# Entry
Amino acid sequence: MNDDAELLRQYADHRSEPAFAELVRRHLGLVYHAALRQTNGDTHRAQDVAQEVFTSLARKARTLAQRPALAGWLHTSTRYAALQAVRTERRRQNREQEIYAMTDTLQSDPSGIEWERLKPFVDEALHALNERDREAVLLRFFEGRPFAEVGAKLAVSEDAARVRVDRALDKLRTTLARHGVTSTVGALAVALANQAGAAVPAGLAATVTGGALAAGAAPTLFFILMNLSKLKVALALGAVAAGATTIVVQHQENAALRVEVSRLSGPSRNLGNDAINAENARLKASVVQLEALRRDDSDLIELMGEESGIKAKVIEAVQKRANTNEAIVARLAARLAEVSPYDAAELDRAVVVRSTVPPLYPPKLKTAGVGGEVLADLVIDTTGAVQEVRIVRSSNREFEVPSIEAMQQWKFSPGEHGGRVVNTRMQQLLVFKPN
# Structure
């Protein structure tokens, strides 16, 4: 069975739709159910998020083909896409809503952990793991892979994969406990494992595959132009064939006239003067007709040469245009890959804070002794400046604007990936304490 990297290479190099469809089949359950959890059970929005994630996979197929496994990247992409979808819907409806409401104190269940209480926090907790631990948990519990296959994906032995999964579960349990969701490692494993068998809506795989292939496919101008050139070539060849047929017919007529001249020239010596004169007149007319046909032959041959030259110029122009468009598309794709921000977990050298500006504490909240916190997504550019600040959650909306204004002034040492400085996406938590 081909691994994910090989299927991505087949799609990137040959636009193999069966290869991409197999990738969707393998990972759609992971992506769809992660989106469903993060959109609060909204099936339509979860399907839109799944479509967006696999469309992004199609566009980045060549770059992502270097990865040994895709589960971690798919989960991270699903998380960002789902967060963006929720924020967009919230702005559209212009209503107040907290993304993560923590109003009830969750109680531990001695017989296991209740999935409905775990669901709001599991993706954030997964994102807090390092990339290899997150990959191990996703492969084992959300895609239902055996330990041997998890080990093969992570390039470790089956026993090492088992140990990594156990340690990752313990880290996950600790993170969830900070949200009030307490359980044993065994109960957490059972709750997560139940997600591997959860059903995906019928027909979603076909819809996602078709949409991603349509959005991720390269522009087809080259193929349109090639089809156009084939049409012109066919027309030119048709004209050449028609011209050749005409030449054959005219040569046959010329040969018949020559035979007729030879036949009539012999007996004419024995005819009377009137008959000779009439025969001579007819022969002269035949000669005139023969010369006209010869001129027609010459003109047709010349036209055929011109048509052949025109055909060659058309093919050359079409080819040049297609090559130009392919080069433009390649440059645009390279530029897009270059400017897209990397997740902080993907960096070879991490982003480092150089300077910060404290947020302005809202006076009435400080006077009232109200504290809180704000979690934000930051995009750090290659100069270390903050290009984008988006609020993920906050305990009080009045803390959000001061947090955004403050973090926009922060300075960082930019992160590196593959030996070059890159744009980076990371999360930052600000805590407001009244004293």
Strands lie at 342-343, 352-355, 372-380, 386-394, 411-413, 416-417, 420-421, 424-432.
